[in-house]
Design brief:
Number of helices: 22
Strand order of the largest sheet: 8-11-6-18-15-16-17
Helix content: 25-40%
Shape: globular
Structural class: alpha+beta
Number of strands: 33
Distance between the termini: 45 Å
Strand content: 15-25%
Length: 897
């Protein structure tokens, strides 16, 4: 029998079983929810507290080692310290998804106590054991430095607020909740919040491909404390769900074949997590193991077994885009280069593991979730339960990062199944290893690309054949392949292309959306080919890009006419000095990325404003996954309505109260839902003018580029009018609905210049190496249309660029016979003391006639990074590498002998 140990937590003496993990006592007994559980492996640092003055991870510490020690969490900081850290992290723009932030704060606390005036290098060293996937660390270092200065000098803290419209400095609206750890992520919900909660988990397949012959549940069901053991026979609706294609089995039925190791066979729920683990071990599953398909090449062989027999093929999707005769133009061109490229699988590695809590509600279910699209989750859950969609309500808690990895249901429908069948509140959470296995990854691509130009370096044509491993299920593999192909020619002014892409089912983990959405892979190939063409022509990589850069009025390779906001040339100008005057080891690359779903698909942004208690309340389903869409909407409403931000409140997305604004994907929410919020706020503003008896004067005209868009401009006198809370009483009870359809043309539309997307962002990245081959600096210039929030924008650019550096140099997701072998700590994620410095250069250029001209940047920030890095190392060591991650760099892992 283990002994009770005494320790002090935030100045309070407690006793706990010495065999328990400290994180368990802090989170579950003391309910100190600032201590986050990101990995349970001691790798991520989200559970960091200060123990006797030292920053310590609690998930690997037994209570027995804490006897007599003093533990401090964020909750135990002094009020002054709390205020300072909230202000500093908000002012620096250090908070994105927020899941890592309390741990970072405690690292900062321990450092500042020991060293009141730390340097940036000392701060980076202090947080080096804590991972942030969002920010790139620069702004976290800024925040800790600012906090140290404020605490050391005892400065008063400025008060922020007032009219913070588009382009004005504005702290994120949820900074305080995330810094202090009081903001609610799904796993923070417990049995005190929701009495009667039970805990669920799925038993996953023992083999990537096997026939399930029998499932024996009797022993597990007989264990006291087990709530249920469910199989596919217990599903009241469709066994199969899916984001776009319903091919993903909720539970594999007896007699069916598994598709990958993450397939759920049985779902167990129990009164406690401990009983749950016991019960899972008592479920006996009989299999007939079959040889798996481990790569796309094998899956495409004649006679290969079918991953999904009902599909009749292992080809999930095929795209063939042709404009002109590429073969003929390439043959006639002065210069041409052909290379084979390989890009790897990548794990999203968001800090918050997937978790959902579901409860029976009004003949249906209510689901708390952390995902990228609450209406997608509602649709798939209702399909599985056989319910009308309105019987499923989904509400987002805070989302601890996404990057595309939360677009598919993973735990939401499982929690809902227990809640609906057993009439019990149920939490289902993935372990970090389950998360690494189950949610869809970035696709592995194999590419053969030929690019040609004339004697001056003017691009003439390109040809691409790409094959991608889509893994076990469709996820968003079709659209990813499509976007990879439509963007493959790059942001350049030439129109002859032949692009063939194939997405293939295998028995590997599924592949789906990941920041860049396929463009990250194909642009890598395009940009490296450009470097080789520049050599043949006798010009440098900057010059060949500048000569070919798409400009307003030019025709993109997909046929769309570039709109007035097109700023690729400006991004090249912005990095020219850095490129030419930073030494011999410099690489450069460009990219473009769509904003919005586009290609003729329905693409709506929606927002609902409610005036209540003299405040404007914002409701929209647009998920905030760290990019800050809630703050964007508040600033756009502040701008359009002429109201201070303290009179505006953003609410968490909920399908019962928030109109469907689509998935947070495709860098779309700022542009599409931002425009919807602007439209609703303009209606509200006009009503305020009418209620006050003021003249409302404006001019308007139809957009020259976007169908169904009217450009409105208030007169100077009207624009100067501002309102405040006292003016809103006349509108109490009113609602305003804003909707914007980003109207585009379908793929293959029979029009000369199809509008594939309502907007594009453009970027140029430069990688500068030191003589020893380490990265001195990344310079990232981005054409963003209009800056809404500069600190948030810079944070997106910095974080995306560091993520792109990881893709280029360090990150790996190795598979051994379809099994991921990495743990969170071995994925190769950049840490603060190794992450390169990033200089973010936003370029503003008018021309997008919606959302004040703002273009989403969530994805493009990672796209040009890898080819820029590869170009720099080509100059450093002379090795032209076409496979990622690069080898032979100071960041390369030493190979085992």
């Amino acid at each position: 029998m283990s002994e009770l140990c005494k320790l002090w937590v935030n100045g309070r003496e407690i006793e706990a079983d010495g065999e328990r993990k400290l994180i368990d006592v802090l989170r579950n007994d003391l309910r100190l929810k600032s201590v986050k559980d990101g990995c349970s492996e001691g790798a991520c640092g989200t559970c960091t507290v200060v123990i006797d003055g030292k920053a310590t991870k609690t998930c690997v510490q037994k209570v027995s080692r804490m006897a007599g020690k003093h533990v401090l969490t964020v909750e135990g900081l002094s009020n002054r310290e709390k205020d300072v850290f909230v202000y500093a992290f908000g002012e620096a723009g250090a908070v994105q998804c927020g899941f890592c932030i309390p741990g970072m704060v405690m690292c900062g606390k321990a450092l500042i106590d020991a060293n009141p005036a730390p340097s940036r290098l000392e701060i980076a060293a202090a947080i080096r054991n804590n991972i942030c996937r969002c920010t790139g660390y620069k702004k976290i270092i800024d925040a800790i430095a600012m906090a140290a200065d404020l605490l050391r000098t005892d400065q008063p803290l400025p008060v922020r607020g007032g009219y913070r419209g588009v382009g004005n400095p504005c702290q994120r609206i949820n900074v305080k909740a995330k810094v202090l750890g009081v903001g609610r992520y799904t796993d923070d919900l417990d049995a005190v919040d929701l009495p009667g909660m039970c805990y669920g988990s799925a038993i996953r397949s023992a083999y990537p491909r096997a026939v399930v012959k029998a499932i024996h549940t009797e022993k597990a069901k007989a264990l006291p404390g087990v709530v249920c053991v469910l199989t596919a026979d217990d599903i009241p609706g469709s066994v199969k769900v899916g984001h776009l294609k319903t091919d993903w089995d909720t539970l594999i039925p007896v007699g069916s074949t598994t598709h990958f190791l993450g397939d759920a066979i049985a779902l167990v729920a129990a009164e406690t997590p401990e009983i749950l683990e016991q019960a899972k071990k008592l479920v006996d599953i009989e299999y007939e193991e079959l040889p798996p398909l481990t790569c796309a090449a094998d899956a495409l062989k004649e006679g290969a077994p079918l991953v999904h027999p009902s599909a009749g093929t292992n080809v999930l999707a095929h795209e063939h885009l042709v404009r002109g005769d590429a073969d003929a133009v390439i043959a006639a061109s002065k210069y041409k280069v052909t290379h084979h490229f390989e890009t790897p699988w990548t794990e999203h590695a968001f800090l918050e593991p997937e978790c959902a809590v579901a409860m029976p509600f009004d003949d249906g279910v209510f689901v708390y979730s952390s995902d990228q699209g609450i209406y997608d989750t509602r649709r798939e859950t209702a399909l599985m339960l056989g319910l009308p969609e309105e019987k499923v309500i989904v509400e987002n808690c805070f989302v601890g990062g996404g990057f595309g990895g939360r677009e598919d249901v993973t735990v939401q429908h499982l929690a809902a199944l227990v809640a609906y069948v057993c009439k019990r509140i149920c939490k289902v959470k993935l372990t970090r290893q389950e998360s690494i296995l189950i949610h869809p990854k970035r696709h592995q691509f194999s590419m053969d690309m030929t690019t040609a130009c004339d004697e001056t370096g003017k691009l003439t044509a390109m040809k691409l054949v790409a094959v991608t491993d889509n893994g076990a299920y469709a996820s968003l593999g079709g659209p990813v392949l499509q976007r990879a192909c439509t963007h493959a020619a790059g942001p350049y002014n030439y129109q002859t292309i032949d692009i063939d892409g194939t997405a293939v089912y295998t028995n590997n983990p599924p592949a789906g959306a990941f920041r860049g959405f396929g463009v990250t892979q194909t642009i890598f190939a395009t940009e490296l080919n450009l470097n080789k063409l520049a050599e043949l022509v006798g010009i440098d990589p900057w010059e060949i890009r500048y000569r070919n850069a798409i400009r307003p009025g030019d025709i993109l390779p997909n046929g769309q006419i570039a709109d007035p906001s097109t700023g690729l040339a400006e991004t090249l100008d912005a990095v020219k000095e850095a490129y030419y005057h930073s030494g011999p080891y410099v690489g450069i690359a460009c990219a473009l990325k769509n904003s919005g779903v586009g290609v003729g698909l329905p693409d709506y942004g929606r927002c609902r404003l409610v005036v209540k208690d003299d405040r404007v309340h914002i409701y929209s389903s647009a998920s905030c996954i760290g990019q800050g869409v809630g703050t964007v909407l508040v600033q756009m409403v502040s701008q359009a309505a002429g109201l201070p931000i303290e009179d505006i409140k953003w609410h968490m997305p909920n399908t019962a109260t928030s109109p469907d604004a689509g998935t947070t994907s495709g860098s779309r929410q700022t542009t599409l839902t931002g425009e919807a919020a602007r439209r609703a706020a303009v209606q509200l503003r006009r009503d305020l003018f009418a209620a006050k008896g003021l003249p409302y004067e404006e001019t308007s005209h139809a957009s020259n580029y976007l169908e169904g868009v009217t450009v409105e401009k208030e007169s100077p006198a009207t624009a100067a009018v501002r309102f405040n809370r006292s003016d809103l009483d006349v509108l109490n009870g009113r609602e305003y609905i804003g909707e914007y359809l980003g109207k585009t043309d379908k793929m293959g539309a029979d029009v000369p210049h199809p509008v594939s997307h309502v907007a594009y962002g453009y970027a140029t990245h430069v990688c500068i190496l030191n003589d020893d081959g380490t990265i001195r600096k990344m310079v990232a210039a981005h054409d963003v249309g209009r800056v809404v929030n500069r600190k948030s924008l810079e944070g997106q650019i910095e974080g995306g660029t560091v993520m792109g550096c990881g893709y280029a140099l360090t990150e790996q997701y190795p598979l051994d016979h379809c099994k991921p072998t990495a743990k969170f700590g071995t994925l190769g994620l950049f840490r603060a003391d190794k992450a390169p410095d990033v200089e973010a250069i936003p370029i503003e250029k008018e021309g997008v006639d919606v959302a004040y001209g703002a273009i989403g940047v969530g994805e493009i920030t990672s796209i040009p990074t890898a080819p820029a890095v590869a170009g720099a190392y080509y100059k450093w060591n002379g090795q032209f590498q076409t496979t990622l991650p690069l080898e032979g760099t100071p960041y390369s892992r030493k190979k085992k002998k």
